[in-house]
Design goal:
Length: 443
Amino acid sequence: MTPADADFHQLWKTKYSKLIFRKSDTIPEELHQMVQEGFLTLRKHDCFFQDLVRIKGKDFVTPVSRILIGNPGCTYKYLNTRLFTVPWPTEGYDIKYCSPRIHDACKALIRLNDYLHIEAVKALQGQNLFETKEIKDSTVIDREQNFATSFMEKESVSKDQSSCCVSEDDYISLKNRTSYNLTLLNYMDPLQMLYLKQEPYFGMGNMAVSWHHDENLVERSTVAVYSYSCEGSAVEESNEQKLKGRDPAVWHVGLKVAWDIETPGLAIPLHQGDFYLMLDDLNVTHQHCVLAGFSPRFSSTHRVADCSRGTLEYIFGQCELALQNLQTDSESMALSLKSLETAVVKQVEEIHNEVEFEWLRQFWFQGKRYLKCTDWWLKPMAKLEEFWRKMEVMTSLVLSEVGKEEQIEEQRNETLSCFLLVLTERQKLRKEWTASLATGFQF
């Protein structure tokens, strides 16, 4: 359904109430200008790249080009591809950008990030108040109806004013679920695409991004999406008014109830500078897609990424844990292992695999794309390579030690059995990476 359908607003209210939509004129004009100039700067400097992703064991190139910007040292993984943030300006970090304009673009995006964080906190507070008081109101916002029924159009109650309904713990929870640590920027020019997949369930037309849930997010965290389609003229607007249903010239976000094609989906038009919020568990209970218009479009998708295993701090900690089992003789400087206990060997070799396949190969497979913006990642990746080389030595030391006669046979067999499982996995993954390189895909 689209806003042209009679039951559109009722459907939104009953099945999609955790989607909040805001039109462009609710955002400060200065922020629009900064962000949109930032998009164009990044595009001009060739900072957007298609990704090679893996779906059901097969490699695919994404039709959308992307760049990840966010907290220094953060990464985001989707469809088996780990992206590394171009760090936005952050106090306490020395970040050298390749151009002052790229610095300005990243600064604009952290400004947008801060703005969307505040708006998302307000939205969640508003929804809590809405549910507590059982106010019969709609979260539906519709351009044609001037979004008159949306509680988001009203000034949300501040934390102090709403303390009767939102406890301090609840407020901290809301804040944590909206503290975006990165944004995945997208760009696509549909007219340059040879083929776009058709939406299969509701006849919504060309899809830029198929139905999906966003991956690797903090549980019940809000996703905020700012949209900037490079609309060329008033023809696009007039066409939208003449057509019934989904106007193919206009970009839309599509939503459906997860694994349900009986409940009608929504197709919501996206115009220059609009943004929307997917609150609470909407990303889990529902799926969304992006429906292509005719004009090129940028979007900035702000997320609370689950970085529990995706930061430099984390992986350096893992390396330090593994290297605790390596010792150097003070006289001969010879290297040896402190322990051959099965659990210790297994842990070290699993960290070895993690460093190689989740970090080093992911980073270098993507070539020099990050050098278009900054060389910030080169030093930490060189440090990771050092750790990896030491772990390669540790692997050799295990093989050497378990072959010695003084080893108790039962312990040796247990260690070897566990050790070989990890090595077999390593060999399998190395073959897969070699096969991916053989595709000839260039970043």
